[in-house]
Specification:
By secondary structure, this protein is mainly alpha-helical. The protein has helices at about 20-30, 50-60, 65-100, 105-110, 115-130; strands at about 35, 40-45. The protein has a two-stranded antiparallel sheet. Helix 1 packs across helix 3 (about 65-100) and helix 3 packs across helix 5. The longest helix is centred in the middle third of the chain and has 37 residues, at about 65-100. Residues about 1-10 have low confidence and may be disordered.
C-alpha cells in the first residue's frame, strides 16, 4: 500500500510538445483584435465577432501556437520588405549590365545576361510590378 507523501513531489511533469493548431495560429496572426468592452467580445478586422470558441482559443494559445504565429507574421513582414525594396533592387541589378553597354536599353541588357541572370531579372520584375498581397496565414 502506498502512502501519500506529506510534502509536494519534486518530480516535474513534462508537458508534451504538440503541433500548433492551425486555426489558433490563423486567429493570432491574421486577425486584428478589437475588443468591445460593453459586450466583452473580440472582433475580426472585417468587423465580424469572434465566436465563443474562437475567443477561448485566442485567449489561451499554447507556447507553440504563439511562436508559430510570430513566425507567420515575421515571414509576412519579410515579404513586405522585399516587395517595398524590389524597384531599387531591380535598378541595382541592372546597373552593371547597362554599364557594359554602349547603347543602354533594357533589351540589350537582357541580351548579355546568362540564364540564371535572366531568371533573377524575371523574379525582380515580377516583385516590382505585382500588387502587394494581403496577409493570409500559412501562405508566406
Amino acid at each position: 500500500m502506498s502512502c501519500p507523501l506529506p510534502y509536494p513531489s519534486t518530480r516535474r511533469t513534462r508537458i508534451p510538445l504538440t503541433e500548433p493548431r492551425r486555426y489558433v495560429v490563423a486567429q493570432l496572426s491574421g486577425a486584428y483584435f478589437k475588443y468591445h468592452a460593453s459586450t466583452k467580445t473580440w472582433f475580426h478586422h472585417d468587423g465580424g465577432p469572434f465566436t465563443k470558441a474562437e475567443q477561448a482559443a485566442a485567449l489561451a494559445p499554447t507556447i507553440n501556437e504563439v511562436k508559430e504565429a510570430k513566425k507567420q507574421i515575421d515571414r509576412y513582414h519579410q515579404y513586405l520588405q522585399t516587395w517595398l525594396e524590389a524597384p531599387e533592387e531591380l535598378d541595382r541589378f541592372l546597373a552593371p549590365f547597362l554599364d557594359r553597354l554602349d547603347e543602354k536599353s533594357f533589351g540589350n541588357a537582357i541580351g548579355i545576361m546568362n540564364e540564371n541572370e535572366r531568371l533573377k531579372l524575371q523574379w525582380l520584375v515580377n516583385a516590382a510590378t505585382e500588387p502587394v498581397r494581403p496577409f493570409t496565414p500559412y501562405t508566406f
